[in-house]
């Protein structure tokens, strides 16, 4: 808001084309030469008015020439020279003012001396403004009844009231809410500080604080700026700092206080962050500070790992996953590491080639047909090499096969499921259906019927295994089934089972026995060993260990084994002539052929001869369990 000052003392009077300055009785204009003038900055009048004035210069001896306010006596008006000459530059000051006495209100050049102390002055600059608005610099005259009557006090207008009065913040830090226009002795227009950058920053800060009206912004900014507040310290504002702004609505004042409080909190947080950054340079502090975060992270990592592990186990324990694993195992042409292991064994152990036996097994595998299912049983003595021959034949045929070991009374289908790579048998449901479905999927994926090779270990019953094998191979007709059964485990009842085809795998011949020992044993002694004990790989392993580890000669080892077997026979047949006669009759036949007819079956079935003789249900002959007993019997009784 702006207000026009109706009369301003000293007043201006017009004489023809020139403007004259007349000093009133109560307010005398002081003139000073430029060399005595104040160095305070001045502002030109808006229109740059220039004119002539008649100025009455007070006598140096009159008390009116000095400031009447005791508090500002040191800032008295400069002394005038005894004589003002034409062309001398002079400044005009306002008397009885605590702040205007050092700042000129007009400046000009002396034109002529009229009379006494009255001079005609050509005014070049006039620093007064007839407009009063918020931010205007004014000088207020005190009332006549006051103690300091006639004293002028400067201030800044912070509010223009609607009734023509002004709210002025005085230089003595007091606030006058209603100053009438008659008390305004002088207006300098807008104060110089309103054009400063610091002031504009305060106004902008108030605007961002939510003070919408321009008048409120200017009013609050004037009060704060005059009291020394700057924008970088406004966050320290408190309620006591705005108590004098009663002319401002309370909502506006609360906005200012809210902004300052927010900035205080912000500065406090920034200081805390800075302190934290300084502290975090210390590793021990950082370790202590983030120990909880690290612990929580490790706990979260552990939970995530446990969850992932359980989720993985959950998927792997499903029947569909186990079925996929079983199908993949069936579709493999060979076990990934089987061929490499075989090659390594052949290179290191000088693996004995048995092409004739392998070709015979391959010929049998070619005859397998699911339309006319048969169960193949390969049999032979312990140590004859059944497993090696069958595996080599399967590898050469490139047939997808799974090898299953059945031990003791273990369930056949359960052993098959484990051999298929299933880790959780319980989720498979019915094992026969599971194996059948896996074989069906493998055949659909690979185009070949999978082969299951069952190897019966000691204690396994062929009769029990046969029941599950028939259901899988003959009833479902989804796979080929091959069994490896030692001849020592066969009975007459086993050979009578339907859909079983028995094939005998012989022991080593002499050439293979020599190759098995790597030709490291004396040939004469080895020939003697083969004539007495035979070519079984188990016996050859014992001989190899005795010769190369215990440093016993082959001939001595052979004689010791023969002597021990003879003593066993004599001890068994002592006081048993029937057993002796049966063994003597059996030893008369070649060891490989055995005795088919004419044997004393009752004597040969005696429990005392269980470890010496056996019945071969495949050939239907009686045989010695080992050629050593055949040689010992011939040495004793023939």
Please describe what this structure looks like.
The chain has 638 residues and is of the alpha+beta class. The protein has four domains: 2-126, no CATH class; 132-262, no CATH class; 319-504, Rossmann fold, CATH 3.40.50; 522-637, no CATH class. 40% of the residues lie in helices and 18% in strands. The protein has 20 helices and 21 strands. The strands form six sheets. It has a five-stranded antiparallel sheet, with no helix packed on it. Strand 20 (613-616) and strand 21 (621-624) form a beta hairpin. Helix 10 runs parallel beside helix 11 (431-446). The longest helix has 30 residues, at 250-279. Residues 1-51, 55-80 and 344-348 have low confidence and may be disordered.
In short:
With 638 residues, the chain is of the alpha+beta class.
Per DSSP E runs of 2 or more residues, the count of β-strands stands at 21
Mean residue pLDDT: 79
Low-confidence stretches: 1-51, 55-80, 344-348
Overall geometric form: rod-shaped
Structural class: alpha+beta
Which percent range describes the beta-strand content? 15-25%
Main sheet characteristics: 5 strands, antiparallel
Overall number of domains: 4
- The level 1 CATH classification of the largest domain is Alpha Beta
Known CATH architecture of the largest domain: 3-Layer(aba) Sandwich
């Amino acid at each position: 808001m702006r207000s026009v000052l109706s009369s301003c003392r000293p007043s201006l009077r017009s004489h023809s084309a020139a403007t004259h300055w007349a000093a009133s009785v109560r307010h005398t204009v002081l003139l000073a030469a430029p060399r005595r003038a104040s160095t305070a900055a001045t502002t030109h009048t808006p229109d740059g008015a220039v004119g002539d004035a008649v100025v009455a210069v007070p006598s140096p001896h009159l008390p009116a020439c000095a400031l009447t306010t005791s508090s500002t006596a040191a800032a008295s008006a400069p002394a005038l020279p005894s004589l003002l000459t034409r062309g001398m530059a002079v400044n005009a000051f306002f008397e009885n003012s605590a702040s205007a006495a050092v700042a000129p209100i007009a400046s000009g050049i002396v034109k002529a001396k009229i009379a006494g102390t009255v001079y005609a002055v050509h005014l070049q600059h006039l620093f007064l403004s007839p407009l009063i608005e918020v931010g205007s610099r004014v000088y207020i005259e005190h009332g006549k009844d006051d103690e300091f009557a006639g004293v002028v006090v400067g201030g800044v207008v912070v509010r223009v009231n609607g009734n023509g009065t002004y709210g002025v913040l005085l230089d003595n830090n007091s606030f006058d809410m209603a100053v009438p226009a008659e008390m305004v002795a002088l207006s300098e227009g807008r104060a110089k500080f309103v054009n400063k950058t610091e002031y504009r920053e305060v106004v902008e800060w108030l605007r961002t604080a939510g003070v919408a009206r321009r008048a409120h912004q200017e009013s609050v900014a004037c009060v704060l700026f005059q009291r020394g507040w700057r924008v970088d310290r406004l966050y320290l504002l408190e309620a006591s700092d705005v108590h004098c702004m009663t002319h401002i609505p309370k909502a506006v004042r609360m906005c200012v206080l809210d902004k300052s409080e927010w900035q205080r909190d912000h500065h406090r947080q920034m200081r805390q962050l800075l302190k934290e950054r300084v502290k975090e340079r210390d590793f021990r502090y950082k370790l202590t500070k983030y120990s909880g975060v690290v612990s929580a992270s490790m706990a979260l990592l552990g939970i995530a790992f446990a969850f992932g592990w359980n989720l993985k186990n959950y998927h792997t324990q499903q029947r569909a996953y186990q079925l996929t694993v079983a199908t993949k195992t069936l579709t493999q042409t060979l076990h990934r590491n089987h061929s490499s292991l075989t090659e390594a064994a052949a290179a290191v152990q000088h693996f004995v080639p048995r092409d004739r036996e392998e070709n015979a097994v391959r010929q049998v595998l070619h005859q397998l047909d699911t339309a006319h299912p048969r169960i193949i049983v390969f049999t032979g003595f312990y140590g004859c090499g059944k497993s090696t021959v069958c595996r080599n034949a399967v590898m050469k045929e490139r047939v997808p096969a799974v090898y299953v070991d059945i031990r003791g009374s273990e369930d056949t289908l359960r052993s098959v499921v484990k051999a298929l790579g299933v880790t959780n048998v319980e989720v498979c449901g019915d094992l026969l259906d599971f194996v059948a479905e896996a074989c069906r999927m493998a055949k659909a994926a690979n185009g070949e019927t999978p082969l299951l090779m069952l190897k019966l270990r000691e204690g396994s019953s062929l009769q029990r295994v046969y029941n599950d094998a028939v259901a899988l191979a003959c009833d479902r007709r989804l796979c080929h089934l091959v069994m490896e059964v030692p001849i020592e485990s066969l009975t007459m009842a086993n050979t009578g089972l339907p859909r079983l085809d028995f094939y005998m795998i012989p022991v080593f011949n002499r050439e293979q026995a020599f190759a098995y020992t790597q030709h490291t044993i004396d040939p004469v002694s080895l020939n003697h060993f083969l004539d007495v004990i035979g070519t079984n790989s188990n016996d050859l392993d014992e001989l190899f260990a005795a010769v190369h580890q215990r440093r016993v000669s082959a001939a001595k080892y052979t004689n010791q084994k023969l002597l021990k077997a003879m003593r066993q026979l004599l001890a068994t047949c002592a006081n048993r002539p029937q057993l002796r006669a049966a063994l003597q009759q059996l030893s008369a036949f070649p060891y490989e052929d055995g005795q088919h007819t004419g044997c004393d079956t009752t004597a040969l079935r005696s429990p005392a001869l269980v470890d010496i003789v056996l019945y071969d249900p495949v050939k239907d002959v009686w045989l010695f369990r080992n050629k050593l007993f055949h040689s010992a019997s011939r040495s004793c009784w023939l």
